[in-house]
Structures are given as C-alpha cells and as structure tokens.
Write a structure and sequence with these properties.
Rossmann fold, about 30% strand, 17 helices, about 625 residues, 6-stranded antiparallel barrel, 6-stranded mixed β-sheet, alpha+beta
Length: about 625
C-alpha cells in the first residue's frame, strides 16, 4: 500500500527537475516534453520508505493550458509538494494550483523554494514571504518551506527527509470495500497491448481478476499488473499506483476519465447533487451556467443549477445540481472542481452528495434542500435511517447503500451496530448479501403473520393451521419475500410460531383435535361415512365448507369429484375389497363393480381415484393393484 504526493506550481519553476534530483528518474518521458523543456503529460516517479511501502510522486504540468491534466493528476493524491522558484516567486498558476488543491481538500503539503542558487538571500526572503501570504487562511498555511536547488543539490536531503516523514504520517486509504481506480494514463506496449494506469481509491485487485470499465460498461480479465515500481505484481491496493494489462481491451474502450472497478460497483452518471463552494476572487455561479466539471480524472461540460434557484455568489457555499453533457463515473463523497467555459479559469468546487438525481423542481425544492442538508451535515446513522424510511419495503441492501452514498464499509458497520443497539433496525444476511430493515416494519409483518394464523385458529378450529403457501396472500402485495422469511424465522426462534408440515400454527395451538373440536370433526366424519361409497355431496346443509376443507387438509377426508367427498378410511376399505377378490390378478371395470356392489358410474369414479393415488394401475381395459 502506497502514499501519493502530487506536485504543484507555475510552469518552469522546476517541478520536474526537482523530481529528477530527488529520485534519480526524470518524470518527463515524452520527446516533446524534453524538446520544449516543459511538462505536458503526467509523470510518475517513486521513493521507497523504511517500512517497505512506496511514495509515488505525480508530476503535473504547470502551464495554464494543461490545468485539466493537473486536476486529473492531483485528484487522487494524499498530499502535495508545491514548487515555487525563488527568482519569480508566486505566479498565477501557483495560486490556481493552490485553489485546486484546497477545493480537492489536499490540505497537507510541503513547499520547495526552488532555484535558490540563482538569487541572493533578499530575493529568497521575498519569495518566501509571498508563499506565506498565498498560504494564509488556508488549511496548509503552516506548511514548511524548504530552500533548495536541484542544480547544486542544496537542501535536497532535508526536503527528502521531510517528504518521507510526511508520507509516513499520512492516513492510508482503506483496502476494504470494493476496488475502484480512476484511469489517468493509457499506453500500448508491443506484445502486451493496451495498459491502463491509475491510483487505487478503495479495495484491492489481484492478477487474474475480472474487472469492469465504465462508462463503456465492458468487463476484462487482468492478464498482468504492475504496482508502483514492481513490474510483475500479484496484488494492488488503495493508495498504490497500479498498471493493468487487460485482455481484449482497446484504446476505444478506455480513456482518461474512465474508471476501473469491481463488476457491478461503478455507475455511469449524467447528473449530480453537490455542495459547491465558489472561490472568493473569481465569479458568481449563475443559473444554468455552462462550466467545465472535473471529477476524478475526467473533465466534461455541464450545466450548473443552484438548488435554491438563484445565483450562488463568489466566496459562498450552496447546493448545486449539475446536468452533465457526457457521463462520468463518480460516487458521493468524491471531490470535484469547476472551471469557467470561457475564459477558462477555476471558479469553485466541492463534494458530491448524491448521484443520478432528477432535475430541480420548484415544488420539491424545500424537500430537496432538507435532504441535501442531511447528506451534507448529518451523520451516517441519520442518512442510513432516512434512506430506509424512504425505500420501498423500508429496507436497503448494504452493498447498494455503499455504492450510492460512497460510505466506507467500516463506517457503515459502526452505524449499523449503533442502530441495532438502539433497536431501530434489524440485519439479515452478511457481506454483500446483507440487508438492513427498520425494526418497526418487521414487527408490523410479524403482527400480520400472527394475526392471520390466529384468525384461522379462531374461525376454523378444525384446520391444522394457515397453509404456508397462502401466507403471502395475507400480506400487502409489495411485501418482499425475504422480509416474510426473515420475520417468520424470528417468530420460530421466539417460540411464537411452529411449522407443522405445510402449515403454520401458533405454538400454543394443539396439534391434535380435542374437546368440542374433536366432537365436531367426528360428527362430520360420521355423516360422510353414512354416505358410503356413493360419496357425500357438498355443499351440504348445516356443514361449513371451511370445516370440510380443514378435514381434507388433515387427510381425514378427500375429494372423490368436484362435489363429492369421502373419508380416507374408505380408500383403505375399497383397497381391501380389491385385494380380497383379485389379489395380484388383473380385473376389469365390470368385475370391480360387482365386487363393490355399486353402479358403473360410481365404480368408474373410484377406479379413477385409485389410479390417481397410485393404488392401482391401468393397462388397456384392465387394472391391477400396485
């Protein structure tokens, strides 16, 4: 697991030269960069730390024309190295780079006052004072300043030690959760094909894994991977510089701004809700202003729509909805930068709060603002519970919640534990199959289950219980199947409900019929027996069909035809007669009629019953006992 430090500073202030002097590797790799003496593309160099981990440096262009490349480079860094030349001091791109770092909340860094060999002490003092002034009232205002010269080596040892110390103190990104890596570099190698590179933001990835690239929405297997300076690595983690050689990928499938991640984790988005802060010295954000929207390593054009429906003044913070002209891949919690369409300059930025959101409607504006207030200021517990309250069925899948909100798995686990202890939610399943449901909803389902079973017991005491297959009919149509199973499992565990065969019963309901219930059953059975083999016709006066059905469920009665029933004992009696008259020999329908002493119509009815129950088998015009 590594730490990423990004350079920043005006063009020709010596960022690349400093990287070369510190690491021995020139970050400028393009012929055009070497010919022109300026950085055009992102460069990468590395330093090893004492604990075996790696510090990765991303060297960014300083020219104003390449600000979008600079933003892509520093979007994933942990801290910065601001380079200011002692002979020129703070310049326009110095200030803009600092603005971008502050917007992206890269607040920890070190300043290198470069080219100190070219000027006297007075100019160095003046340049240092300008740097202090530029950092004033920012989170990085106490950043240490080192006077250095890449040409003579002056001050480099102290700077290098400070950089390694800063890297060692950086809180490492979590390798828990699902893998995500914004792509900032794509190149081809002969014999290998297309290589995609980036910084791991979360999770981990292994050689041989299959990953997804968005927004193209295709999956590819990792043939080989490099991590930091290691060419043939087997695993990359959050905070590492990772290069992936993917099977079958082409340059049309991936570009700077694409994101590589675990299959099913990433979403391609065309709209976002954000908390946006405008820079103090630039411009106001007017309604539907067209801006350049930078998130991760991507840049797209977008329409900015302040949610309050009015201009967001410079220096102020507000909620802004962005309609994107091209899809991006992002998650709540990601930082973004906005720049004017023309003239191009950084004007603000902030944090993504919600993704895939609808257009702002005036009649729903207040509810939208309240929701964004919760996302912006509320804790994860409140956000989770509100999400569940608004969800169909009052439940969420933990994995989907993480994907939608960008919550860290560890933090979500803490929020879930707290809500469970407060008895506000319940948990079903584990890992990616974990579901969270509001306790009150489960209790409501349990009450309805108990009520439905209790109603059967009261109204039809002959019944063995509520057929489990019918339970869903007793609950609202939109009740999720898993919530029914979950609620039933709790009722089983609590000893309130038992499953007896295919029926659900309250635990205190007697399994065998007793008292008046048993007498009623015997009265009905006696009436049916009196009908003999002719069958008892239903519906019958004085007998409820519910009671008849209950005895059929208990396997004491059965249907001869649609409107005739008989006792199960009568089947045994008929079978006994057949065995006594024919044994294992075949018999015809007429012979069966004579042995039973009934009409041909009744004989045919019983023959069909015996065939259906696999007591007899028909072969041509004959039958025999199985």
């Amino acid at each position: 697991m590594g730490v990423i430090i990004g350079t920043a500073g005006h063009i020709d202030h010596g960022k690349s030269s400093l990287m070369l002097a510190l690491t021995g590797v020139d970050p400028d790799r393009l012929k055009e960069e070497k010919a022109r003496g300026i950085t055009i593309e992102l460069g990468y160099v590395f330093l090893d730390m004492e604990d075996g981990s790696t510090v990765s440096f991303i060297d960014v262009p300083g020219h104003e024309k390449f600000i979008k490349t600079m933003v892509a480079g520093v979007s994933t860094v942990d801290s910065f190295l601001l380079v200011v030349s002692a002979d020129e001091g703070v310049m326009p791109q110095t200030r803009e780079h600092l603005d971008i770092l502050r917007i992206l909340e890269v607040n920890r860094g070190i300043v290198a006052l470069s080219k100190c060999d070219l000027v006297d002490d007075d100019l160095i003092e003046l340049a240092e004072e300008e740097v202090r002034e530029a950092l004033e009232n920012t989170p990085a205002e106490n950043a240490p300043i080192f006077r250095v010269s890449a040409k003579t080596g002056f001050g480099l040892d102290s700077l290098k030690t400070a950089l390694l110390d800063m890297a060692a103190s950086v809180e490492r990104k979590s390798s828990q959760g699902r893998f995500r890596m914004p792509v900032d570099r794509i190149f081809s190698l002969k014999g290998f094909g297309t290589i995609v590179c980036g910084t791991g933001l979360s999770g981990q990835v292994n050689a041989g894994d299959t990953v997804e690239i968005q927004p193209v929405g295709k999956t590819f297997r990792i043939r080989e991977m490099g991590v930091n300076e290691h060419r043939h690595a087997t695993k990359g983690e959050a905070g590492d510089r990772i290069a992936l050689n993917l099977t079958g990928v082409s340059k049309q499938d991936v570009h700077r701004g694409s994101v590589v991640g675990e299959i099913g984790f990433l979403k391609s988005l065309n709209s976002l809700d954000t908390s946006c802060t405008m820079l103090q010295r630039n411009v106001d954000l007017i309604l539907r202003q067209r801006v350049r929207f930078h998130v991760g390593t991507s840049e797209v054009m977008a329409r900015a729509i302040p949610v309050e429906g009015k201009t967001l003044p410079r220096g102020e913070t507000g909620y802004v909805h962005f309609q994107l002209e091209h899809p991006v891949v992002a998650m709540p919690g990601d930082r973004f930068v906005i720049r004017r369409y023309s003239p191009v300059e950084t004007i603000g930025g902030g944090i993504i709060l919600d993704t895939g959101t609808q257009k702002v409607r005036s009649r729903f504006r207040q509810a939208r603002l309240s929701h964004l207030d919760l996302l912006s200021h509320g804790d994860l517990e409140d956000l989770l519970f509100e999400t569940m309250e608004e969800a169909a069925g009052f439940f969420v899948e933990a994995d989907v919640f993480i994907k939608k909100t960008g919550a860290e798995p560890v933090e979500l686990e803490k929020a879930v534990d707290s809500l469970v202890k407060q008895e506000r939610i319940l948990v079903s399943g584990e890992g990616k199959n974990q579901r969270l449901i509001i306790t009150a909803q489960v209790l409501t389902i349990e009450r309805k289950i108990l009520g439905s079973i209790g109603t059967i017991h009261r109204n039809v005491p002959l019944s063995p219980g509520l057929p489990s297959a019918y339970l869903a009919r007793k609950l609202p149509a939109d009740t999720a199947v898993w919530t029914v199973r979950f609620s039933l499992a709790r009722l089983y565990q609590a000893g309130k409900v038992e499953k007896r065969g295919d029926f659900l019963c309250l635990s205190d309901f007697p399994e065998q019929m007793v008292g008046d219930v048993a007498k009623l059953a015997e009265f009905i059975l006696s009436d049916v027996r009196k009908a003999g083999l002719q069958g008892y016709k239903i519906p019958a006066q004085g007998r409820r069909m519910e009671d008849i059905e209950a005895l059929i469920q208990r396997n004491m009665l059965f249907y001869l035809t649609e409107n005739l029933i008989s006792t199960c004992d009568s089947v045994k009696n008929v079978t006994k007669v057949i065995h006594e008259h024919f044994g294992n020999n075949k018999f015809r329908l007429g012979e069966l009629r004579e042995s039973l002493g009934v009409s041909r119509k009744i004989t045919l009815m019983w023959a069909e019953v015996l065939d259906k129950q696999n007591i007899t088998r028909r072969e041509g015009e004959s039958r025999f006992l199985i």
